[in-house]
Hints:
The protein has helices spanning 14-21, 34-41, 71-85, 94-109, 122-135, 153-161, 174-181, 187-209, 221-224, 262-271, 276-279, 299-319, 370-383; strands at 2-6, 26-30, 45-49, 63-65, 114-118, 139-145, 167-172, 214-216, 252-254, 326-340, 343-356, 364-365, 387-392. The protein is of the alpha/beta class. The longest helix has 23 residues, at 187-209. The protein is globular, with a radius of gyration of 24 Å.
Amino acid sequence: MITIIDFGGQNNHLTARIVRDLHVFCEVTNDKKALEHIKQKQPQAIILTGSKRQPIELPSLPILDLTGVEESQQKDLISSFLFDQNSIPADWTMENYAKSAIEDIKQRVQDKKVLLALSGGVDSSVVAALISKAIGPNLTCIFVDHGLMRKNEGLEVEEAFKDSGMNFIKIDAETRFLNRLKGITDPEQKRKTIGEEFIRVFEEIGREIKSVDFLAQGTIYPDIIESGTDGQLAVKSHHNVGGLPDVIDFEGLIEPLDILFKDEVRELGKVLGLPNYLVNRQPFPGPGLGIRCIGELTKERLDILRDADKIFRSELEKAQLPNLGQYFAVLTDIRSVGVTNNQRTYDYTLALRAVSTKDFMQAKWVQIPYDLLDQISQKIVNEVPHINRIVYDITSKPPATIEWE
Ligand code: XMP
């Protein structure tokens, strides 16, 4: 175990990634909390990183000072520090992590009950798989299908978990959500309504369940790393369904991914035997297709979007383009005149969006080759009724955002 003391800067987590990629476990702390962290975790060595170096008194452990060192030069220095100079073993692997995390959960939970709100996203799916391996039927997972999932997504989540030994409860809330969303076209109003309805559904379930011993959450490391001398949160926390409402009493939280980066979570998912389509999922917003279907949300329009989005995503995946961060279709509320089999049509315009991004705070639109765009466009208009025009979104963020609403 290595402690990285981060003195702030732009790329404060990259050093941690380099160390972990060398199969050595490390944790990041900031300079204010460093001494407490070291006392508690007893690291074998310390690495100093970041750009705003402050004076600090450290215990007598091996120290590598990387403050101000370019990222491209760090790997060689770190490798030589860890292995040549300090003979630190390279034994941090996901297989080992999975084993020890399962053991820890068993010890902590014993024969008590754990509840998890499963969103179908990567993080909560991996938490579900991990805890279920540890405690089987003492884990209950609630998966609310709000009808705003992508094509087959609800079924895929059910398929992955229904026979896993846990208590898997799928709540089919499509009709309920669509009824609440009837007539709403304003983006913020849609987001609010979807968020509120989620809370209502969970409150109702919570009233039936009343109490559990532990709540599990898919919090990951970037959500909690505090870094830099000012102690600011490095990553804004996202609203998701991880937090169940106050009506459920519980004695503790279980957050078994809270020391893992996103790609480590994916690797853990693979080690636990989750299918690739779950593990490699791109981020999907809580309000789902609700904010990718411009205008009123109806089942018919959502189904059109689901079919078109599926084609776009699978064609892009087949093409294996590099640097695709997020890619999806948006059903606009523009209708235009077209012609199919000599018949006039008046149908929807679909927009395609693909961006590359490091942190989702900024993003660049991806230059998909014209012939691939052409192939995708033809496939969608041929196979999906009610779309007669397709446009490709060529704006980056800023000034656009990744999602349209
Ligand atoms: P924007 O559209 O703001 O999106 O550029 C940035 C990233 O955040 C995702 N996103 C959300 N994720 N709940 C989420 O969990 C939300 O309400 C939400 N809205 C946007 C978006 O998909 C992109 O990855």
